[in-house]
Amino acid sequence: MSPVISYESFLVTESFEGFEDPEKFKEYIPKLEKYKKELEESVLDEYKVSMPKPIDELVKDQLDAVDYMYEAKLLTPEEFEITDSTASKIVKNIGDGKWTAVQVLKAFAHRGTIAHQFTNCALQIFVDEGIKRAEELDEYQKKNGKLVGPLHGVPVSLKEHFNYAGKVTHSGYVSLIDNLTEEFGVTPQILYDLGAVFYIRTTQPQTLMHLCSESNYSEVTKCPYNISLSSGGSSSGEGAVVTFGGSVFGIGSDIGGSIRSPAAFSGCFGLRPTTHRVSMEGSTSSLGGQETIQAVFGPLARTVEDIETMMKTYLNQGKPWNSDASLICMPWRDVPKPNAKELTIAVIRDDGLVRPSPPIRRGINTVVDKLKEAGVKIIEFTPPNTKLAYETINKMYNCDGNETNRKMLGESGEPLVQLTKWSLNYGEGSRMFTVPEVRQLHMTRDALRNEYNKFMVDNKVDFILSPAYNNVAPHPREVYNWSYTALFNILDLPTLVLQTGLKQDPELDVWTEEDMKHQYRSKLEQLENEMYKPEEFKHAPIALQLSGRRYHDEEVVAAGKVIADDILKVNLLKH
Amino acid sequence: MSPVISYESFLVTESFEGFEDPEKFKEYIPKLEKYKKELEESVLDEYKVSMPKPIDELVKDQLDAVDYMYEAKLLTPEEFEITDSTASKIVKNIGDGKWTAVQVLKAFAHRGTIAHQFTNCALQIFVDEGIKRAEELDEYQKKNGKLVGPLHGVPVSLKEHFNYAGKVTHSGYVSLIDNLTEEFGVTPQILYDLGAVFYIRTTQPQTLMHLCSESNYSEVTKCPYNISLSSGGSSSGEGAVVTFGGSVFGIGSDIGGSIRSPAAFSGCFGLRPTTHRVSMEGSTSSLGGQETIQAVFGPLARTVEDIETMMKTYLNQGKPWNSDASLICMPWRDVPKPNAKELTIAVIRDDGLVRPSPPIRRGINTVVDKLKEAGVKIIEFTPPNTKLAYETINKMYNCDGNETNRKMLGESGEPLVQLTKWSLNYGEGSRMFTVPEVRQLHMTRDALRNEYNKFMVDNKVDFILSPAYNNVAPHPREVYNWSYTALFNILDLPTLVLQTGLKQDPELDVWTEEDMKHQYRSKLEQLENEMYKPEEFKHAPIALQLSGRRYHDEEVVAAGKVIADDILKVNLLKH
C-alpha cells in the first residue's frame, strides 16, 4: 500500500493506549445515566410531540421534520409568528408591548423542545430558568419603561462547551461530568447582559473534533430537513435547533468547520468570524493555549440579518475586549450594501482533493448563474496548495501528540467513538511535534495566507464562493472530509455559510456517465464519493460558503445578505 | 546557593556545546574583515569629522556628541535647519520647491555619517544610492508636478535585519554574511513606495537578544548624549542615528524592549505598537514561526509627531495588510487630542524586581508632578505578578531549547559575545519545552493580560506610566535587566518611550541614606543597582514609558504628544 496521506487517517489502525479503560469508566456510568435521565425529564409534558410513527421509522422515511411541524401545526399560529421572527422584530414587538419576553421564550422553548424530539439537539433544557429570566426582563421593562439592551427577550441557544453559570460544563468529555462552572464565559455573559434569554444547551461530539455529533453523553444529532442525516458538527445541536427555529440565533465554535458544517448540513446560516473578534474566554475544551490553529466562536441563524444583529450588538454594545484581552478592539463597522454589479467573486468548484457530489454542483451552478445575472463578475478559481493546507492543518490539530486528549479522555477511560479514533489519527497522530516543527507549521500557514491574500488583492477579488463540504448532509458518523471548511480555518478568512434555498432532489442530483469515469485522487475521495447515493439524501439543504479577506467580516455579511435575500431570495422564516 | 531565578541567567555557567567552533569560524574572518572595511570606506571624505581628541579620550570624557555637533558647527546652518525638521515640514518644503529631495538627503546623510563616527551606529552607509533615489524623486516631481507620496524625500533609517533589496541581510549572524536578499521586506517596501529615501542600515547585537549592541560585525553602539554609555538595543543603531538626527525616523523591532531601550537610552521617542499592525514579513532573524511571544516593528523619532506620521501614512496609505496577511486590517484612527483633565494615569515607580536608580526616580517624580499640575488623575500602581511575567517571557524566548540559534550561530561557529551567553541562558536555557508546556506559557500570558486589562477597565485607567529600565543608559555590555520593557511585550500593550527632557545630573541623582538600607530582592537587583555610580552617567537622557490598552496605539501616541509637547515641553529639534 502507498503511504497514508495525513488526511487519510481512517486507513490507520492505532491501539489508543492510554485512552480507553472499561474499569475506570464503570464509575462514570451511573453519572452518565443520571445526566441523560435529567435531559429526558426536562422535556415538558405540554411540549411533547405525539409522533405519527415510531421515530426509527420516521428516520427510515427520511422525514422532513420542519415541514412536518408546519403541516401538523405543532405550534399555535401565534407561536409560529413569534418563532419565525428576527431578533429585531422580537425586540421591537416586546418594546411596543405587543409581546412579552415570557411569551417569546415559551414559544421558542416549545419549538426547541420539539426540535430536540426530532433531532436530539439538546444536552440540557431548562425552560423554567428561561421563564424566570424572561419574567425579570418583563419586570424591568415595566418598572423602567425601557428594555435592558438590544437583545432584550431574544432566545439564544448555546453549544454546551461554553461555561454556564451554576451548571456542569463537560465539553463532551466524561471526565468533566462534575465540572461545575460558576460563572458564564465572556460571550454568554455579554449576550445575557444585552438581554438574551437562555433555556437550552446543545450537543457536540466527543473531543469536539468531528463534523458530526456522537459522544458518550448523547446519540447523534440529526438534520431537521431529513432526520436520517447528520446535523453536522461539532456545533451539532446548534445547527439543528437553530434551523428548526428553537432559537433566534445560536453560538457555536469552529476550528475546522464546526460552525459551518452544522449550518450547511442542518439548513441555516452560520458565520465563522475572523479570529480574535468573539471571545472564547470561559469555555471548556482541550484547546487551552493552543494557538497554532485558532478556534473561533460565531453565530448560526435562519437569516443573515440575525447573524449581523448578533455580531453588531455583541461587539458594539458588548465590547468584549473589556473582558478578554486576547481580542482585537475592533467594533463592527457599518459597511454600505454592496452593489452586485461591482462585486468580483472567485468560485471554487472543486478543491482538488474531493470532488463535490451532484447536488452541490447543482447548487454552485445555480448560484453562479444567478450571480452573473445580477451582474457579479465571476472568476473561476482553482485554489492552490489545498493538499498542503489540509495536511498542515491536520498536523496542527494533533501537534501535542494528543497529550491533552489523552489526559481528558483517559481520566475517565471512556470508550472512544468512531470519529474520535479517526480524528486522533489526524496529522501525525500521537507523535508530539518539537517546538521548531510547530514553528514550521506556522510558517507554512502564513505562506498559504499570503498566497491566497495576494490572489485576492491582485485580482481585486472581493469574495470566494465554495462548497462547504463535498456533499450535502451525510449520514451520521460518515463525515470524513474536512478539506472545504478547514481551508478557511488555516487561511483565517471570515466565512459565511449560505443556504441556497435549494434542496437535494434524487431525480436531478445523480452522477452522470462522465462522472463515472472519474479517477479518484485519493482513498478519501473514493470513500466520500461512493457514499453519495441520490435516493438517500432527500431534501437535504444545499449550502455554500462565502469567504472574504481577514477582518472583513462585515463585508462578508453584507454581501451574504444581498446574495441570500435579494439574489437567491432564500426565506427560512416560513410563517 | 539558592536556586537561580529564571531571569538570573548571569549566574549560570553553560558550556554552549554546538555553538562556538574556532575552526569553522576561520573561513568567515576574511569576509567579516571585508564587510567592516566596506563600512569604513563608505564614510565619505567630505563627511569626515576631525575629532577634537582621539575617540577613546572623548569616551572617557563622557562627551555629549549632540551638544558638540551644535557647538562645533559640524553642519552648515541650512543642514541644521533641514535635519532639525519633522517629516511634514520636509515634505511641505519639498512640495513648495524650497528644498529638493537631494538637498534633504545630503544633509541627513552628512549628519548620519557624523553620528556613526561618534556612536558607531551604522552597518552600511550608501549615500550614493540615497542620492540616486532622491534624484528620481526630484525628477518625478518636476515631471508630474506632484509628490510620489506622503513621505516624498524623507530620509528613513532601517535596522539591518529588515531585508534590503539587493543587499546582504545577516541579522547579526555571521553565518548569514552571504545572505543576499533580493527584495525589500514589506515594511521598507511600503515606506519606499510612500517616498522615503534610504542611505543607512544600522547596528544590532548578535542574535538580536541584547538590550545592547555587540556582535561580530561591529563594536558596541554608543549613546549620543554620553558616548561612554550604551545606545541600548537591540535596535541599537536606530537609537543612536535617530537621536543624533541622522534620519527623520527609523524603524526598529521589539520583542523585549528592543525599540524602547534604544529610544530611552539614546534619547529619542520610540513606539512599540500592538502586535500585527506593522509588518515583519521579509525580515531575517531566528524568530520565524515563533508566536509564543510576538516581536513587533515600530518607529523611533525625535518627535511624537513623526512617530504618528510614520504610523498613519504607513497604515492608511500603505495598507500593509494587502502584502502581509498576518496583519490586522486596522487603519490608523484619528483620535481627538486628549484633555489632560480627563486623563487617568497609573504610575509604576518600582516593578518589585529591580529598584530604579536615582535619575529615573527623579524623572518619575518630576513628570508626575507636572501631570498633576496639568490636571491628570494619577493612581499609584503596584503592578501584580511581575516576577511571573518576567519568568514566563524568559521561558518563551528560549522555549525551542535554543535550537534555532544553535543552528544559526553554530553554522559559522562564531564566538559568542557576553550578552549572547546571558540570553541563551534565559528561562530554561537549552531545554526544549514540550507543546503542552508551551501552551501553558500561553495560558499564563493570557491570564496576565486579562489581569492588567481588568485593572485598567475597572479603574478607568487610560495609560500606565513606568520606567523604561531601572536606570538611564548603562555602560556597554552591562545591561542585565529587561523587566520594565518586557512586561509590556508579554502584555502586548502599545508603549511609547517618552523623553522627559531631563538629563542625569551627578549632583542631583545620588543614592540617599535611605536607599543604602535597601534589602536587595535578588542578585539581579543588586547587580543592576550597584552599577549605578552617579559620576559615570553624565547627561544620560531620562526617559519613561507610556502604555495604553491593546490596539489603542492611536490613543497612546495622542497622549504622548500632549505630555511631551504641551506638558513637558520637550524639544529635540534644537535648530
From TrEMBL, chains A, B:
Name of the protein this chain belongs to: Amidase domain-containing protein
Amidase domain sequence ranges: 104-556
Annotated substrate binding sites: L208, S234, I255, G256, G257, S258
Active site: K159 (charge relay system), S234 (charge relay system), S258 (acyl-ester intermediate)
Gene3D superfamilies in UniProt: Amidase signature (AS) domain
MF-aspect GO terms: hydrolase activity
Family: Belongs to the amidase family.
Keywords assigned by UniProt, alphabetized: Hydrolase
Alphabetized Pfam families for the sequence: Amidase (PF01425)
Family annotation (InterPro entries): Amidase_dom, AS_sf
